[in-house]
Write a structure and sequence with these properties.
The structure holds three protein chains of three kinds. Helices cover about 20% and strands about 30% of the residues of chain A. By secondary structure, chain A is α+β, with helices and mostly antiparallel strands. Chain A has a domain at about 50-160: Rieske Iron-sulfur Protein, CATH 2.102.10.10. Chain B has ten helices and no strands. By secondary structure, chain B is mainly alpha-helical. The chains are: A alpha+beta, B mainly alpha, C mainly alpha. The interface between A and C is medium-sized, with 16 and 21 residues.
Chain lengths: ~160, ~220, ~90
Amino acid sequence: MEDKITLTFTRRKLTEILMGLVALFFAGGSIASILKYLWPATTAKGETIEIKIANADEVPTGSVRKFMFNGKASVLLHMPAGFRAFGSVCTHLGCIAYWKPDENILFCPCHLGKFDPNTGAVVSGPPPSPLPAIDIVVKDGAVFALKWKDPNYVKTISFYAGAA
Amino acid sequence: MSLLDKIYKWLNDRFKLRDLLTPIVKHPAPEYAVTNPLYCLGGIAFLCFLILVGTGIFLAMYYKPTPLEAYKSVEHIMTAVPMGSLIRSIHHWAANTMIAAVMLHMMRIYFMGAYKKPRELNWVVGVTLLLITTTFGFSGYLLPWDQLAFWATKIGTGIAGSIPIMGQYISLLLVGGNDIGAETMTRFFALHVMVLPATTAFLMILHFAMIRIQGISGRL
Amino acid sequence: MHIEKIEYGPEKTGFWSQVAFGLVILLTLAAVVITGNIFWKILSSDASTASTRSFIEEVGTLLAYLLFDLGAIIYLYVKGLLQDEYVTTLE
């Protein structure tokens, strides 16, 4: 019958479609280039260099020393059982926990989270997981921080991003 | 002819100012809109925006956007710059007033049904402006680089980072790294002073143009 | 200024228009290759090489090639595929 559906695909149309695809390709590449420009350069800190925290006699029993480890606030405690070191960024929402000697805890003031100073475990409050421990060694009368005890655990805590 | 008339005639002879300005300046507003103070809220927000731009420009002349200098520069503005504390205080209060005004304006539009056809697109533009206004507040809050600023930003970027899949990338782009620091400050300053004002100005032009074309919506 | 709707009319026919069309296809492929080249260079470079003068000059020359390529495509499109009758009146 005469009811033919005609589909005209002219050379003109093909050219226009191709040009549109090239333009789309160019636009996509431009956006990718802009993102590359804006993307922050995060340096992977995978080194396990010994970092000297302090001399052993500077941190008597019952006192603490704050230090930076892989860019995160950390704390060295001299407990009766020995030296302990933890990352002090609270696992709840990222505030810094501090040593509260009267209660014998690491205390986060934001939402009253409490951590055990010997193990880093959560004593009470909203933190979902313990403070990550740092392996330390005492030699030549000074305390050195070596590495995270459990780097895979540190990788799971968003507030320690870039530290493991 | 008075001096003002002479100036107007000079401009009018060259730019046809009368034809351009008359429809903009002389337009009837419905009686219910002029007498009800709720209809002023949008204008209050715009006025606050103009005040913020003005005071912001003056603040930007003395503010230094690096972690070492930021707090000191703000202290300098507050104590050593003539009328600096006034400018900063106006900026602070205008910002709070603007947020309150846009929220109340949005509620007024909603409860009066002024978002309905044919004004749907204007509602969309309005909500976008609301989100930009809150982003303004968020980015400006970091700039004094005091405890309040730092921790508020930590919370805010933490919330952004908790979005399921895109979260960590959004957080990375916002913070400019893993921790809030100098990179974050420069990014927020660029956003607060350059990107957001330009976007707001453009969206406001759209918003006002649509209102002029469509008129104030009918009475309650 | 008053611009009439541009009427292209039927496409040009003939041997040379086919040649033009074929060239347009080839040039489009070339444009894709050049664009891909540019963005591959940009996206796979590290930060320090991407800031050197030689890098920027290379990207610049590629962009210039792309520009002339697109210019050639448009020229062949207009001359080889369109009829001569398109109407604009300026009054």
